[in-house]
Structures
1.
Amino acid sequence: MAIHSHLSFASSLHPKIDTRIELDGIHDNCFLDIVYELPASVFVDPYQLRDMESRIGKAEVFGEHDLELPLEKVKEPRGSIVLLRQTNLTSPIHIQLPIHTRYQKPASHQQYQAVTIKVPYAGWTCGASSWPPIDHELLIPYNRHHTNSRFIPISNTDSKEQLELLVPVGSTQDRQLVTLGTFCIVILCSAWIARSILVSVKRRKRTEAKGKRRKSD
């Protein structure tokens, strides 16, 4: 039994983790689960994974998965855990997990930020648990209810092996220009709205004045 992973589109905002699993056999009464430990710099879209269930398996996401926050605003610095429970055990199994990168904090002297991701690992979850009882901070509160389950990992995974992607970083100079430009646009729009209201009020007053003159005539 073997598992191999690599990154596709590693320099884009929407890379993918490609994983291939070769099975030697199947554990009876157990579920095959793939585990992804993602840093806070990247995230998955749970709704997208739900739509892809027929291709990647049933997904459970724990931890940070807010779709809008930049890296400096995330509430869970430990990132997230993604579990994919496989329903199709035909070997080899090929999974493409779409991930998304968060906007990094702007910098003055770099265009890209290197982000490392632990390679995913897989194994058999035996018991009544809906997810593997692995020892991870984000899963400890949930695993207390599944003490009778056990996880049999695929043995060839190197826990020190990592995947690396390059995330584009905005420039601090550009940030200042964007702030100034946004401020100017807000002022101009506010002035245009105020002018439109003033013109509308004047027209209404002229219309009312004409109406009064006609009545007096």
2.
Amino acid sequence: METTKKIVINNSLSIVGDKMSNLFNEIDDDLRQDRLKTIWATYKNSIYTAVIVISLVLIGSEAYQYYSQSKSEKSGLILSQIVESATGDESQLINDYIDELLESGTSDYKTYALLLKSDNFISQNKLDDARETYMDLVKKAENSFIRDLAKLKLSYLNVDNVSFDQIQEDLSSLLESDNPLSLFAYEVLAMSAYKHGLYERGIEYLNTIIKSEKTTNGMFDRAQMMLRVIDSK
């Protein structure tokens, strides 16, 4: 079971890496020509992909932990099937599993299913539905990590139409260095700062990401890309 879990996680992380690599090749010309709207549209979609897969990996880890403790736990089995299906292209099967989990799962597992359902709304460009579900999770989820993840995803969705001060307030609880989502929160703050002309503030957040020992290669590349965008102003 441990081996299976590692394979699922490694495959999911590989998906992130491949998509990020392709992304930066595609937008290199856009950066040089300063077509910011095109850059932003492409960049934002890549962020959604990254955070969706990260949430699947983290939730999947818990699913396998629960499943290994009790093979008879139906909710754990369904959630582990969702994670396994996510490594392929089985969107309808994933939707069926999510609906089944929402209908018959325990309280914790229903929370996980809502998170995945929100991600699915994003993939269908149903952003208002995704916002509503994330807001519901922020208010009601008992698991603090799920609440933080919902806050983060909601902020990604709102960065185009919410003030910088509001984004900063919404993400304040994620900025502690021991929070596993802190660097993603700085990434959103940097985007919001740029959006509102707070370039020095944006540079400060991006440098925090670049200097952190926890920064992944993909996140480092995104920070460097945003610095080039700011420098072009």
3.
Amino acid sequence: MTKTALFAGALLICGFADSTHANPEQDRSAFVEHYRKLFPTLSLQDYADGVYAIDPNARESWRAIEEFPPYEWAIEEGKTLFNTPFGNGAHYADCLPERGVGIAQLYPVWNGESGEVVTLAKALNDCRQRNDEDPLPYQKGEIASLLAYLAYTSRGKTIAIEIPASDPRALAAYEAGKDYYYRRQGQLNFACATCHVQNAGKLLRSELLSPSLGHTSHWPVYRLKWGETGTLHRRFSECLKQIRAESPGAQSEEFRNLEYFLSTMSNGIPINGPSIRK
């Protein structure tokens, strides 16, 4: 089978064959319907649990760990960092809607002025730079703790990403993210969708492949493999490394557009971050 045919097949699975006639909400409906057929006993809200929604045995162990989660310190550190003023006396809260509390479900957002997708992590670093502070590394450390705290304040709020119809650049960014998701790349010639759409619920070696629906709902996560809390874009880079593809880097335009697409597909799913994964 040719690469073109494989790509077309991935699009057809979720009803994305004719992007010129589908809008984001039609894409999302097709995405949800695909997983409804795969996992008919799950509700939309269940997908906030990620792979544990489809793995009852692992779910019990996960719930036990969540009783005393290893990311708890990250929430506390993030709260302290968030409430500590910059050198000029300004705060993160001064840069964010609702002073930053309970807003994680709204990100990424489209910034019409700068003409780009702005993730919550980027908004935090943009705030720092506007206040003469150095930007934080995007994959772990203080940025992960800040995101953990902000996600915690949004727990239970449903993802509500908007793509403004008045700005065609926003739709173009969404489409770019969708294209990246379905594009095969790397030495293994995999796309994100190869694992998480076409083969969701199947085993790859010893790992059960998680559904894409809800993928952005539970970040940042404490991964046992990492031994620390890390960001969604760190995981994006890791996935690309696993398929031997080049990563554009955390908070690159490609990754921000990808997050915009994935979060739009998860509209209506509650925020459940931070969380823990293997």
4.
Amino acid sequence: MLKRNSIRVERLREKLGKANAVRTKVLDEMKFIRSWAQNPLRTGAVSPSGSDLATKMASYLTPRPHSRVVELGPGTGVVTKALIDRGFTHKHLNLIEYSEEFCELLSLRYPGLPIQQGDAYTLTETLRKPKGFLTGETQVKHTLDGIVSSLPLLTRSEPVRRALLDEAFHLLKPGAPFIQFSYGLVAPIKPDNRAVSVYSSEWVWKNLPPARVWVYRKGH
């Protein structure tokens, strides 16, 4: 009898867990839709990235004791969770989010993670703000081990996109990746420097809409 009741309780817990996960997903999508309706050029997408796409993005990074990884445009934190599942902690991560609402949500969902409300397109300046990786540092060149971006890059002009990539490479260590997803057939940023390599993943068909991950690297 006790064993049967224990099984029932466990099944109920599983159902409640699934129900909470569905509820969270729906609420996140509602937040995205509201944010997109208020400023479509800032938000870009009408729903968060799927977990499979987020896992793919995180897979190009390996946590090490002193890793410093910046996430741009974390939104509701889907990629953030994938990075944490990958082994990164609050000591390794620095999140930059433009939306005040998403910043508040991220603070509740991931207490202890350094989250800055700011503009990712002024990357160095934003990272110099309190709690940023570059706060109080005089030497900022080649100090980051990776940048993971969910920014809606194609809402910006090509010169602005290239300027972001150039600034990212100024901060990244040689060979460290700038990781970006896109729904398009071509690279979201076309580098004008032969020293920059670009790799694209296979399509992540489970994402809606299907997307690919683009990984940019630059040597010395």
